[in-house]
Structure prediction request, 279 residues.
Amino acid sequence: MKATSTFLFAGLLLCTLVVMAQKPAPVGLQLYSFRNQFAKDVPGTMAKVKEMGFREAEIAGTYGLSLSDFRKLLDQNGIKAISTGASFEDLDSNVPKIVAEAKALGVKYIVCTWIPHTGDAFTIQDADRAVDVFNTAGKLLAGNDLTLCYHNHGYEFQTYKDGTFFDYLADNLDPKSVHFEMDVFWVKSPGYDPVALLQKYPKRFLLMHLKDRKPGTPDSQTGHSDVESNVVLGQGDVGIAAIMKQAKKSGVKHYFIEDESSRSMEQMPGSLAFLEGLK
Prediction:
């Protein structure tokens, strides 16, 4: 009888663990978080992404696989690619390439993460070139049922006139065809408040990178920071709980955890648990 009870208990525990493993994560994952693991084992790392419960992902390269093979791997693991990156140069001169890659991966959003500029200084000439390239490419992508988003990186918050270059971009980019992906770390890093920015520009941020920062990390307006300052969500000074509350009101549609530290795999369960606790 005792053996039977032990067997039943073990069976129930196993079932519980299976259910927990299959529970969908509350947000998606920027796969760049596990770049080191993907570089060594693409199928094995994708399986771990699935085990963590992720069902949505933002793509950052295919780690040696063809686009079609990477798409098959995503499909096999029940992971939907929501967005993928595109270089500023391709947006400027090779939109057909971006469209083809997006269609192969099955994504809806195209994200550009960097506007070329010299050194650490961002200028009005850099901003004007970005406005021209993004507005043109955004319309072309929209014609192919794709949505362009620009991902802030900190340098856009350098002062320009009575505001910042980000304000200038927001005022001059066509809201019908160019949107934003907020990286909350790179709003906090130059000294700004992600909640206030969401309130200032409602419906402009469709995507969001969730990333927390070790308290005491120096601010930076250069777009560069120590990746090891990335900590478990909720343990830093970015204010993730308040951001999540406001983001839903401001129209953010998809969220991706991005942990660039060398501890990303170890920290991810804690970040997911924190987000689950916000519900």
